[in-house]
Design a protein that fits this description.
The chain has helices spanning 2-28, 34-38, 117-120, 130-138, 152-163, 180-195, 200-207, 209-224, 257-279, 292-296, 316-327, 337-345, 360-376; strands spanning 51-53, 57-59, 65-71, 88-94, 111-115, 142-146, 170-176, 233-237, 243-247, 283-289, 332-335. By secondary structure, it is of the alpha/beta class. The chain has 2 domains: 2-32; 69-197 and 227-376, Rossmann fold (3-Layer(aba) Sandwich), CATH 3.40.50.1110. The protein has a 5-stranded parallel β-sheet, sandwiched between helices. Strands 1-2 form a two-stranded antiparallel sheet. Helix 5 (152-163) packs parallel to helix 9 and helix 9 (257-279) crosses helix 11. It starts with a helix and ends with a helix.
């Protein structure tokens, strides 16, 4: 009896190994990429469609179109949030010949706006985009050169490859406090990896059934083991007297040694961008986008379980401005924090409650602030 059970167990094991061998053989001969079959192991909606780029790391395909919807902002990737607090996001967006969010292929532009997902802003309809509103206010052509995931080093390449060829008179460079310093560090690691010759076995492993199946199991485990969103929440009172829960993704605290090194590199990157722009007769305006916590913290009460109780705003905007002024005094600097705080005081929610990106109302505040600055300094 025991020997029969052992033979059956061995047969099952050998059948499993043979089936796995067949699955992996298809990846070995490059007949199947299981990342495309099983799905990417990240929350990146564009992982399957993005084009690789040795300088930009990724870019959307030329003349691409994306549409869809998703409930829950970026806080829901790591924390459990009640359905009543989750926003329904929809998008229906077109991209130009270079993979940026412009409905037409621009030959020239009066203003180019460079940045990350705050500029691309895929869930905001085109007429309400910050760049569209700025174009209306200025009465000029504004090119949207934002792409999610980009940091200062990718954006320098965007300026050189796509921005300056449009012959702009003004370059607006948007910097997001939440992750742009981290993007500098990530960029060096990612480009170093790209410089390594991709080995046959490394490529096979990333396309294999085993790797992608394990990655998906990990993703599903993370989804069911998420901590409560209360840990990243605060409660504020609306003008109507209601209580509103808001969630924060990016923590706030003292700048680390790594942060300070990335900040210094950002300042030097901006100085080089200023020289490139000036050589073409364009001014460079650096715009600081604060985190949601920097804007909302003074309006919130934090539950006892909230980690946000222990957070404190740092002096990043002041350090950035000082660093840039010391390297290149000609760089113009605009901090959006005061205007966004004024928006909250007036009853506007400039950020989504369940996401650290700004809402269309926040984009409007930014467009108004940039326009006011450009109008007030146009004689420079």
């Amino acid at each position: 009896m025991k020997s029969g059970n052992a033979r059956r167990a061995l047969l099952v094991l050998l059948s499993f190994i043979f089936a796995l061998f067949l699955l992996e053989f298809l990846a070995l001969i490059k007949a199947v990429n299981y990342e495309h079959v099983i799905g990417p192991s990240s929350y990146d909606l564009f992982a399957k469609t993005n084009k690789g780029d040795p300088e930009l790391l990724h870019v959307h395909p030329p003349h691409s179109h994306f549409s869809g919807e998703f409930r829950g902002g970026n806080i829901t990737t790591g924390y459990r949030v009640p359905p009543s607090d989750m926003t329904l996001y929809r998008w229906d967006v077109n991209y130009d010949q270079n993979g940026f969010r412009n409905d037409t292929d621009l030959k020239s532009a009066d203003i180019v706006v460079i940045g990350d997902s705050f500029v691309e802003d895929m869930t905001t309809p085109t007429p309400r985009l910050m760049t569209s509103l700025l174009g209306n206010l200025q009465g000029k052509v504004v090119a949207n050169l934002g792409q999610y995931g980009y940091g200062p080093l990718e954006e320098q390449a965007v300026l050189r490859r796509y921005g300056l060829p449009l012959q702009p008179r003004t370059v607006v460079w948007m910097f997001y406090e939440g992750n742009d310093l981290g993007d500098v560090v990530h960029y060096h690691k990612a480009t170093a990896e790209l410089r390594r010759l991709p080995s046959f076995w490394r490529t096979f492993w990333h396309h294999s059934f085993t790797f992608n199946a394990l990655a998906q199991i990990y993703v599903q485990f993370k989804r069911i083991s998420k901590p409560s969103g209360v840990k990243r929440s605060g409660v504020m009172q609306t003008p109507g007297g209601d209580k509103l829960t808001v969630y924060f993704v990016y923590p706030s605290g003292p700048l680390s040694k790594t942060d300070l090194g990335a900040l210094d590199e950002t300042a030097h990157t901006l100085a080089a961008a200023r020289s490139l722009s000036a050589a073409q007769g364009a001014r460079l305006l650096f715009v600081f986008i604060p985190t949601k916590f920097r804007v909302f913290h003074e309006f919130c009460q934090f539950p006892p379980q909230s980690e946000c109780r222990n957070w404190a705003v740092n002096d990043m905007p002041e350090r950035l401005e000082t660093a840039m002024r010391s390297i290149s005094p000609e760089i113009e600097f605009l901090n959006l924090t005061p205007k966004l705080i004024d928006g909250v005081k007036s009853g506007v929610l400039p950020f989504h409650v369940d996401d650290d990106h700004w809402s269309p109302e926040g984009g409007k505040i930014a467009a108004d602030a940039i326009n006011d600055y450009l109008v007030s300094t146009q004689k420079r």
